[in-house]
Design brief:
Blueprint: H1 2-17, H2 23-32, H3 34-67, H4 73-92, H5 95-123, H6 142-160, H7 166-169, H8 177-206, H9 210-215, H10 219-227, H11 230-264, H12 271-274, H13 283-294, H14 303-330, H15 346-365, E1 374-375, E2 378-379, H16 380-407
Length: 423
Amino acid sequence: MLGTLFVCLIWAELSSHYPFAGVMYQWPSLLLGRRVGWWVGWMYIFAAITLATASYLILPFLISQLFSTTFTTTQSVLIALAMLAVATVFNALGIRVLGKFTEYSVIIELVAVLAITLLVLIFGAHHSPAVLGSANGTAHSFGSWLAPFLGGGILVSLFVHFTYENGGTLGEETVEASKNAPRAVLGALGMMFVVGLLFLFVFLISAPSITKLAASSTPIQDVINNALPVGFTKAYVAVIVWVGILASNVAFTAAVRQLFSMARDGGVPFSRVLSTTRKGTPWVAVVVVAAITGIPLFFSSAIGVLATASTAFFYVVYFAVMIIVLIARRRGWPAQRKAFNLGRWGLPVNIIAIVWTGAMMVDLLWPRPATNPAFHGLRVSVWLIGVPLVIGVIYYAAFQHRRLARQETDSAQLPASTPDLST
């Protein structure tokens, strides 16, 4: 959580200065030139696409928990395709509809989670808060739990502790973006921290048996069932399903905005078509992302593999952007203060963010079955990161190198104010 805070502070500062669609292309382009920005943006498109596909596949699993059933592979694919259709429709309807859906969804989630949490606290079995520091009789030392923690458990927190940069990617389409985009980034992190901390605290002290809780495959449901009627457990799982639907929309939106942003600058194949909009909505990019993210559903349903690989993919891009920001900062950025500015704290925050994203990148890419399993002779990360990289090298050499060289200005001359990249 603390490491993510430093990363989000960098996102907030960048989004205040440059609130554009496709931030992972625009930010590096503005800081170190279009060629650097192109590479970061190219890789981020594929990371977002991988995440979107994984998010569709998570939904059948969540729904099966809600109805206490098991879906066949065909049924799971059909549910995933239905989720793809929902994300496509909401993104095609425009940012206002998507924004309202997201806003109401978050409110529903928070109210439901807080209500269930407070009811569990009131009616559940209670322990002393000292239970939070208990080793549960295992007497595990730091060395004994560190390896398993890094090998598997950390993935859960990493999976929810990224994509905060999307608070800035819709800045172009919001009012007073220089103020509101940083608020969106930091507000999302803060809200998740407060609600998550309260949730974990209450459920741990309300568990009837910490030993049984640690051994259970459904610990949260067990605590709720012990304290409340079974209908509340169903309500909790329903909230999780709704979260899955919202997450799919967020991942889809990130891929669409990134593709549209690069197409608008001629950075991808068929850019003129992909940059077409209708009433401000990049509808062609929406259709293309829907097609690309839907194709893998017919060939694989490996949720864990896709989720892990997409998380690693994002941290590779994050690490690169943190280094880019540090180089730009040493060259004098930001020359002009915006609504959110780190000031003299920018350098230490930036360095910590580099260390954090670099450590997470190495951990997720490490060749272990839990986070980076083998697939047809190579690690999954090699396939999902290496294939876009190879395609990018070919496409860059054939089409983008000369175009970007002509367009690129001196990267040492950073923009003092927010430029217009809409043409």
